[in-house]
Structure prediction request, 362 residues.
Amino acid sequence: MKRIAVLTGGGDAPGLNAVIRAVTKTAINVYGCDVLGIRDGYDGFITPGGVMPLDLGAVRGILPLGGTILGTANRGNPFARKVLRDGKEMVLDVSDEIITAIKELELDALIVIGGDGTLHIAMELGAKGVPVVGVPKTIDNDVGGTEVTFGFDTALMIATEAFDRLHTTAEALHRVMVLELMGREAGFIALHSGVSGGADVILIPEIPFKLESVLKKIRQRVESGSRFSLLAISEGAKLLGGEPVYQRTGDEIYVPRLGGIGQEVGQYIEAQGFETRVTVLGHVQRGGSPTAFDRWLATRFGAAAVRTAAGGVLGHMVALREAQIVPIALNEALAVPKRVDVNGDGVLTARGLGISFGDECC
Ligand code: F6P
Prediction:
């Protein structure tokens, strides 16, 4: 292996820099190979100054940093890139241009750190001959094939701390506190942080809910002497028979942006006579320094990605399975996105603790 490149695509997640550092150090120390960093996702291949050399100095001190020293892009799909031509906005397939640029760099491997969307693009590029190895990233933990993605643990820590803080103010003023959390169509952040933060109601996309059922839980708590309640609501949660709430619908470039369900549920509860406040935790969940677990996982993922590339196992991503990092074919890993198992131990545990998912009979 003589030369590899690494890029970060999609939304950022804590631990991206730890992967970049592990990739660079392992490639240089173990394989004596050159490492290139590609700026702003796949865009860097076709923008001036988009390719930078990475040496040991370039990755010094970045382990605890959030964000990504390479920059990222969540609209940089080479198969459908929004460009301005003759003053008009249009969507173009620039994948051939990118593949040519990659070939000119004579890469032995391109390590792509990203979530579902970025890894799907890697898989398509792989099918066209690009030597890709994936590293799964996202706070949402919704990438198939791996038990966990890096970034998730940090998001949980932030969300759990938010519950702890909401708990004391909720109790003091006898209020209902709603916390809307990220996660897209997967309820992992709301479920795990809700249980860890002592939520009374957890609403997730995988379990459609009824408002009456949520209200019943709040009433029961008041009747039993607990005059406050904490609600964990995943941004993708939806009413039984209803649709998720969007801040903005999608188009061929932009993915739809979820948001607003917390406010809707909060307004309903307040209208029933319970003083309610709504907090939307938003991008705080993605920012700042990664937890020790995320640094450890991201570092192992980065090092394993280089070993996978050196072994010639291309078109794969690294994954955590039974405490080991293993390569999984991208098409296998991405075949089905990961969702909360509604009959799994997490949901059963929560139900056993008396937490409502808003689907109980009223
Ligand atoms: O996928 C990560 C994530 O943070 C989701 O949880 C959230 O829905 C989305 O990205 C927000 O995207 P953006 O950064 O484009 O607002």
Notes: Residues 39 and 70 are 5 Å apart (CA to CA). Residues 3-150+290-321 form a domain with the Rossmann fold fold (CATH 3.40.50.450). The chain has a mean pLDDT of 96.
